[in-house]
Amino acid sequence: MSAVRDVAVIVGSLRKDSINRKVAHALVELAPPSLKLEIVEIGQLPLYNQDSDQDPPQAYLDFRARVKAADAVLFVTPEHNRSVPAAMKNAIDVGSRPYGGSAWDGKPAAVISASPSAVGGFGANHHLRQSLVWLNVPAMPQPEAYVGGADKLFDASGNLINFATRSFLQNFIEAFAKWIEVHIQT
Ligand SMILES: Cc1cc2nc3c(=O)[nH]c(=O)nc-3n(C[C@H](O)[C@H](O)[C@H](O)COP(=O)(O)O)c2cc1C
To answer: Which pLDDT tens digit goes with each residue over 42-65?
Structure first.
């Protein structure tokens, strides 16, 4: 049996009732046994300030260590004003520093966005990918994942009740498992 891969899941919403967090939970449930998905929280990270590179807050050290320990990263992001929410960008910046010690470097990744809008967070998804190019993160190109109308996909308990979306997410996470095996750093 092949190794179980540790996937750090970064959810770009801090909202209690977040749709994107529900998508992340659905992916945890649908992931094949070869992946262990764990949400790594970002809401506790102070706003990045380069001055703190000399004496970083403990929250930065813990976050960087957790990401470094992961085999791969899954970004699940809402769209704010056609871009990545500030909390997500902050987490990316915190993980990328100090210069030369980026926690993201070389980790296979995937990006999925969800929004009540029909466009499904396309703008955020691609702005995030722009950062990943610079950070040397091989991000899975296909299947693209922009989940539109996402406020209608879950019941009151947060269960995914749309079967087409369930099948789409299953296919997405299985493709990611294959992507990880090709791009994982050993
Ligand atoms: C500041 C702000 C900006 C937003 N901008 C967009 C946007 O550009 N595109 C979009 O599809 N939805 C936008 N929305 C609506 C979000 O898609 C919606 O609030 C969604 O539920 C956020 O994801 P979450 O449920 O995971 O928090 C915006 C919401 C906020 C609060």
So the answer is: 999 999 999 999 999 999 999 999
Cα gap 28→31, rounded to integer Å: 5
Q: What is the pTM for the complete model shown?
A: 0.98
Q: Cβ-count burial of 94 within 10 angstroms (0-12 exposed, 13-18 middle, 19+ buried)?
A: buried
Pocket test for ligand 1, best of 25, 79, 113, 122 (most atoms within 8 A of CB): 79
**Token pair 């079967």 in the structure block, residue:** 163
- 109 forms bridges with which residues in the sheet? 73, 139
Element (H, E) at 9: strand 5-11
Query: Ligand 1 centre and the CA of 64: distance in Å?
Result: 27
Q: What is the pLDDT of residues 110-139, one digit of tens each?
A: 999 999 999 999 999 999 999 999 999 999
